[in-house]
Every structure is written in structure tokens, then in C-alpha cells.
Amino acid sequence: MPERADVVIVGSRCAGSATAIAFAQRGRDVIALDGASFPSDTLSTHLFFPHHWAELEFLGARERVLQLGAPLHTRAGLAAPGVDVIGTFDTGAGQTAGSCVRRPGLDLALVETARAAGADIRERTRVTDLLRDATGRVTGVRYRGRDGSEGTIAAKLVVGADGRRSTVARLVGTTEHHRWENQRMMAYAYYQDCRDDLRNLAMQWRYGDDLVTVFPCDGGQLVALLMPPRARSDEFRTDPEAAFRAAVGRVPPFSERLRGCTRVGKIRISYSHPSYFRHSQGPGWALPGDAGHFKDPVTAQGIRDALRFGRLLGETSAAHLDDPVALDAALVAWEQDRDRQCLPMYQWANLLGRDDAVSPIEDAAYRWLSARPDGATQLLDVFSRNRSPTAVFTAGRLIRWTMAAARDPAVDGAHLWRTVGRDLRREAGRMIEAGLFARRRAASARRMRAENGLSTDAAATRCETQSA
Question: Which pTM does this prediction carry?
Fold first, then answer.
């Protein structure tokens, strides 16, 4: 006989633990399975903005995470040659600082919080298949432990919180309805930080086509993150140490920030990390976190969205687990809400993640923002999701910055107007993508059902049609 639970969650890191906490806090019987053991590491930028701390507060995990000792970033900024845009955060849900927390400690703190809420978190256990009823509805999982033990768990809802290479996403046959290939690779390493006076400052520098960052983190360390164009991938594959040193040397203030700091451990590299939205729910299943949606790591939003939409999945669907029709409608509404909140940042991340050099218009924007007392805060508000990108980068301001660049004798006029044409084409593409988003999502859902021979769910179809 199979075990039974209200909810089975596949994956117990950020999205999985957040989902487990939310369901368990509402009295639901939750089992979460993860192939890893905790604490353990995973590839991640793990930068926090104030809204990350807000999500941890909502989940009841903030104090556990604070005890890890990561410094609070009370200042943050972006710099290009000759200009720094550095300032403080605005209040976001009562939080006024960012941070950077290494994943072993962060994930363990979340797992401990989920267990304290009543969730059964099982480590070193992998899901191998899904259970279904005669209509194709997902009704549970098959699993295998690292010790060779096997079993099944029946559930009213199966949550795939198992990352970009999600087993649950593969088994339900879901598809990506939006995808953007990353134009920048990612390489990072930890250093023992020797600059106590800069432990409260997170910085990003853009020099030419290089994009680099420093995030002070727990353990007295910092993360030095490089995001060079993918065209440099062969350099890192051939000699990652030499390529890393060369990238540091190309950005003088970055090199100066690391001077005297000692590297700890190996260089970690990701060459391919495309952005996407997957159809993220269906009869008896849902995909929070990276399993359902992933955006370019240049904006460091993945952990926040994993926490937020794992939590919201539990909050909005826990009361409907005993009514399949109501549950499916709640899952549709949850996915639509996630997409509505995440699409603007997804598009902005794809823009920032392009492999462009700093343009004359961007340079003028940095100088304009730097000259205003609240300029840095306005920019940080976008990363903190207090303002949309289009509320800061308005049409009027873009015209102002273009005119400022045109008056600059150091700017080549022909290059400037080519940049204007390029940016206008990109903006048109962004607007078209946003306008067609709901239709493409609904079409993806219908196509997935047809390809998998699933019966059409009336509530889901009605909600998707209304959204489109």
C-alpha cells in the first residue's frame, strides 16, 4: 500500500521548502523529497535585495538566516568608466538592506523551518515516476532512496520544485512557451574578504562588454562574479584560471576591490542558462521556482521568486486540496499571478543580460542618475521590485539621455543613432512579447494536454481562455 499525504513536493531547496512551509502552516500533511542531503551547495548567485528578506520574514525563516552572519548590504550600486551610481535602498515590505547568503546555510535554514512547521523532509531520495489516475490526473509519485529502497506516495497535489532540469516537468511533458538564450556566461569564486570597511556594499561594474560584481557574504567571504559574453566561453574552457584573472584585470575598480583578498575554493562556471517560462500547472501538479520559470541571473531574482511563489502556491491552494475542480482553478490563477508579476523583470533581465558594451545612452543614464540624490535608490527599486523597469526608464527620460549623448563631443554620432535604432527595435519586440504572452501560455497548455492525451479540464480551459 502506498503512503498518503496531502502534498508531495519534489525538491527541498528554496521553492520546495517555501511551499512545504506554507502548506504545513495551514495544517496540511506534507512530504518533501530531495536527492541531496543538507547542508549542501548548488550553483547560485545568492544575492539578496530587501524583498528577499521580506519573503524570509513571511515564511518565518528570517531569524535562522540572519544567524548565519551574512553582512547586511545597506548600500549598493552600479558603475561604468567615470561614473558611480551608489546609494541606499528604499523600504521594501519593512526591509531596507540586501545581503548575500551562501546556499549550504540558506537551504539548511529553510529545511529546518519547514520541519519546524510540521513538514516531513526526506533527504537522499529521488522521484523516479508519477502516479496517475484513469483521466491522466497526477495522483502521487514513485521514489527511490540512495540506499536502494523504493516506494510510492499518493497525494492530492504533486509540486515539482526541482529546478531547471526538473524531473516533474519532464514527466508531465510540459513545454516552454517563452525562451531566451543567455548571451553571457557566468563564473564566480569566493574570496576571504580583507575589506571590513566595504562589507556593507554590493557593487556591479560594467566596463566595455564585461559585467562583474562583488557581493560580501557570510563566513567573512565575498562572491566575485563574472558575466562575460559567451564568446569568451572557449577561454574559460581552455584555462579557467587564466580567463578569470584576465577578466578581473580588465576592470580596474573590480581588481582593486579584490586586492589583498584570498581566493577560497574553485571557480564555478555556467555556460548555458537560458531564460524561460514553462506551462507550470495541470491536473494535480504545479511547478514553482526554476522548474516553472527562470530568468537571467544578472538581476539576481531567482531565490526571491522561488520563495515568493512557493509560498503563494501553498497559501492560495491549501484550502482547495479536497476539491479537484477548485484546486485546478486555483493553480491556474496562481500561475497567471506569477507570470503577471514576473514578466516585466524577465524582460528586463533579458535586456541587461545581452552581451552589449555600455552604450552612449546608458552612459548618459548613469550620469543622470548619479547626479540625483535619489537616483541610485530609483535604480535599486527596480531590483527590489518596488518599481517596474518602465517606471524608471521612461520614454521621456530615454529621450533626455539620448539628447545628452548627442551633445557629448566624445560620442560618435553614427554609432549613437545605430544604437537608437537597435533600442527601438528591442522595445517593439518587448511590447509584442508582452502582448502575446497570455495567448502563447494558453496555447502551450492546450498543446501539452493534446500531446499527452489528457482530458480537457473545464475550469482550467475557461481561466486560460479568459486570460488570453
Answer: 0.94
